Amino acid sequence: MAGRWSSRWVVAVPMAGLALATVYPLLFTANVALKTRREYVLDRFSPTTSPHWGNLAAAWNGVGLSRYFLNSVVVVACSVALLLLFGSMAGFALARLRFRGSSALYLGCLAALFIPFQVIMVPLTRVLADAGLVDTYPGLVLAYVAQFLPFTVFLMTSYYATVPAEVVDAARVDGSTTLGAYWRIMLPMGAPALLSVGVLDALFCWNDVLISLLVMPSADHRTLMVGVTSLRGQYSGDIPVFASGVLVAAVPVLVVYLFLQRRIADGVTAGATKG
After folding, report:
1. What is the spatial distance between Cα 178 and Cα 168, in angstroms, rounded to a whole number?
2. Most CB within 10 Å of its CB: which of 102, 203, 225, 251?
3. What are the tens digits of pLDDT across the range 228-253?
4. CA count, 13 A, side-chain hemisphere, 232
């Protein structure tokens, strides 16, 4: 019994320290966001005694975070919708359809996962500029789709590979076309994986700064994360307002993670084992 308790403490203590190290930056940011500038200068680490909610209003209304928030919602929603549509169709084709070059195409998707965005950012920006898509919502949406589609295809292919082949064969026997089998059978069956991959893609797009900064350089079209980074220079002397902007950007991601953390874990391991 003593050995069992000691082994639990060996695991529990490092995990508790890791959890504290993860949560502390968020708590520190929230505490700073509720301080006045004077309180922050005098003691930045002490808990605030009288929360100053005006910093949140200043960050939301004063520097346009409300507009940046709407830009992020529109871009992320459109990007995730296209990623799930194309990713699920490609995953179904690669997992259940046999055609010439399917293995090479799948290996190409896997290889694309290992290419950093910094390698392709210059040619991608040039292509979007030549097409007149720089500083437009469609341009940023297409950039996100190009960047995160290989990851989506990989997970959806892994998931659909676990579905018995007899399901598609039965649909064809009943007279369904390949597209009909995908739309009526495989797409609904893939709902758990679609939700998981959708959450992951939404987090990737929401937290992005580099792609958005390259494709949407105009101040009016900035996404929320780019807008928050610009606060650091504009409010370098008012750290509580900057911390309020960081908090506004982090809260949606935190809420999504708290409610869908199990789905996120399922998305990472989708298709890892045969069902």
Report:
1. 8
2. 225
3. 887 766 555 678 888 888 888 888 88
4. 5
